[in-house]
Amino acid sequence: MIISKFMNSKLFILPTILIIFITSIQTCHGQFEEQYYNCTSNYLYTCGQVAQNLTYPFWGGSRPQYCGHPAFELKCQDHDYPTFNIGNHEFRVLGINLSSYRISIARLDLWENYCTPDLSNITLSPSDLFRYNDMVRGLFIFYNCTPEMTRAFPNFTCNVDGRESDGFYTDLLLLGQEVEGLDWPANAMSCSQMIAVPVMRVALNELLNKTLALQDALKWGFEVQYDAKTADCLRCEGSGGICGSDSTGIEFICHCRDGTRRGTCQNSGHG
Ligand SMILES: *[C@@H]1O[C@H](CO)[C@@H](O)[C@H](O)[C@H]1NC(C)=O
Ligand SMILES: *[C@@H]1O[C@H](CO)[C@@H](O)[C@H](O)[C@H]1NC(C)=O
Ligand SMILES: *[C@@H]1O[C@H](CO)[C@@H](O)[C@H](O)[C@H]1NC(C)=O
Ligand SMILES: *[C@@H]1O[C@H](CO)[C@@H](O)[C@H](O)[C@H]1NC(C)=O
Ligand SMILES: *[C@@H]1O[C@H](CO)[C@@H](O)[C@H](O)[C@H]1NC(C)=O
Ligand SMILES: *[C@@H]1O[C@H](CO)[C@@H](O)[C@H](O)[C@H]1NC(C)=O
Q1: Containing domain of residue 162, as a range?
Q2: Residue nearest to atom 7 of ligand 5 (CA)
Q3: Which residues of the chain fall short of a pLDDT of 50?
Q4: Given CB 3.0 to 4.6 Å as the disulfide criterion, which of 37, 62, 83, 254 pairs with 241?
Q5: pLDDT, tens digit, 9 for 90 and up, residues 174-233
Q6: Which segments constitute the Wall-associated receptor kinase galacturonan-binding domain (predicted)?
Q7: Other C-beta atoms within 10 Å of 250: how many?
Q8: Whose CA is nearest to atom 9 of ligand 6?
Q9: In a domain, 137, yes or no
Q10: How many domains does the chain have?
Q11: In ligand 2, which atom is closest to the CA atom of 52?
């Protein structure tokens, strides 16, 4: 009696443990498989004409963060165009080239009107993630200036909150100095405010010879090169994987058919 009771309970417990064990393995396995498939065709990022079927490092909307790099979240505005945040500045995305790792963006705060009460400098300091494309130049816009300054340069009049003021814009060449990236002009101006805005060299040329309006030069945007673990991603893709990040959003992750890896999908050969 005692022995048979013992046998019974043992027989009952063992399969139960096994079932729990197998179920938990399957859930875990299934979740990683799901991440792989959710990052493929299911959830490519699309927003308007500008962003269609985007893959890593971009994510946002219904495309989960684990399919991208944490710094590359896109937000779709009015189902029309994506916006993008770098260093707490909001940019409108004008174009993305996944094969040349290039993104074309424009400042959202100056998009409608460069005469705005809240002027700020752009602080896109070159980092591991982003750097200006070498076709980018600095455009300097001066606001609320004395007439001696505006007369000598391409000028404009702003009407902000019913107050009129004159300003002008220039690149460093016009001020008789070398163009060196987006460095600030050394000499102080008789203007109360000034900002530096990155623009494309071709737009700047047209702007300075007056074949392009200031607002249109700003809407032209500027190009930024990005590097979201490009080398890791190429190795991952070479092994049949899909690039992404882990749930903490910090580590690079290679999503494979049978799970996620830090490096590559070893089964498929390549390292
Ligand atoms: C994958 O997508 C499906 C369908 O939207 C969703 O239910 C599931 O939670 C996703 N899986 C993961 C691991 O995010
Ligand atoms: C994006 O993917 C959809 C669905 O696969 C396809 O119909 C469409 O042509 C793709 N668009 C581009 C620009 O590749
Ligand atoms: C993306 O960049 C590559 C390499 O520079 C270029 O060949 C291709 O034409 C570009 N694609 C688009 C849509 O501009
Ligand atoms: C932009 O930066 C320049 C140089 O640092 C500074 O003189 C100017 O006041 C700044 N403009 C604004 C609006 O903060
Ligand atoms: C703007 O520039 C023109 C020359 O391009 C000059 O004649 C005009 O006086 C300037 N306007 C102001 C307000 O300085
Ligand atoms: C203005 O600059 C653009 C771009 O460099 C050039 O194509 C155009 O011929 C220039 N126009 C004039 C009037 O100089």
Answers
A1: 87-226
A2: 151
A3: 1-7, 11-28, 177-183, 186, 188, 268-271
A4: 254
A5: 565 444 444 455 454 578 888 889 999 999 999 988 999 999 999 999 999 999 999 999
A6: 39-107
A7: 9
A8: 206
A9: yes
A10: 1
A11: 13
